[in-house]
Write a structure and sequence with these properties.
mainly alpha; 113 residues; binds heme C; 2 strands; 60% helix; rod-shaped; single chain
Length: 113
């Protein structure tokens, strides 16, 4: 049995040496810290660059026609990560297409809540 496994087996017992228990606890805390940090990083990244899901082809086509006849401004395509489940619920094609280019960090610029 490797030292690692042996010490883990011992650490679970009431008579495990305190020094060993501290080492195991430290390792667990470190794992939790790394996990928490990663979740925070992913959350921050999605806040900065996350967007809603892309509008349907139908909505895009409808908006495209509005751009062509000059009744709506063209929307610049830009880098974004569509967030699963984050969908626009309106039937308004212009609203869908325009909102699909906003990052989550942009929302609060126009919406107070
Ligand atoms: C450039 C400004 C702007 C940004 C950025 C923006 N919105 Fe909007 N949003 C609007 C406007 C304007 C409306 C239309 C308001 C209305 O008709 O009452 C609207 C409407 C909406 C509606 C529909 C409200 C309703 O009553 O039907 C939702 C939901 C919404 N926005 C969510 C978001 C989310 C989520 C984001 C971030 C991804 C976002 N908005 C970013 C300007 C913005």
């Amino acid at each position: 049995m490797s030292d690692e496994i042996a010490s883990q087996a011992i650490a679970g017992r009431d008579d495990a040496p305190p020094r060993l228990r501290r080492r195991i606890v430290r390792r667990m805390l470190k794992g939790a810290g790394v996990t928490f940090g990663l979740l925070l990083a992913v959350g921050g990244f999605l806040y900065a660059f996350g967007t809603m899901q892309p509008p349907s082809a139908e909505a895009r086509a409808q908006y495209g026609r509005a751009v062509t006849d000059g009744s709506a401004p063209a929307v610049q395509a830009r880098f974004g990560i569509p967030i699963p489940g984050c969908v626009c619920h309106t039937d308004d094609a212009a609203m869908q297409v325009q909102h699909s280019s906003y990052y989550i960090r942009d929302c609060k610029g126009c919406h107070s809540r």
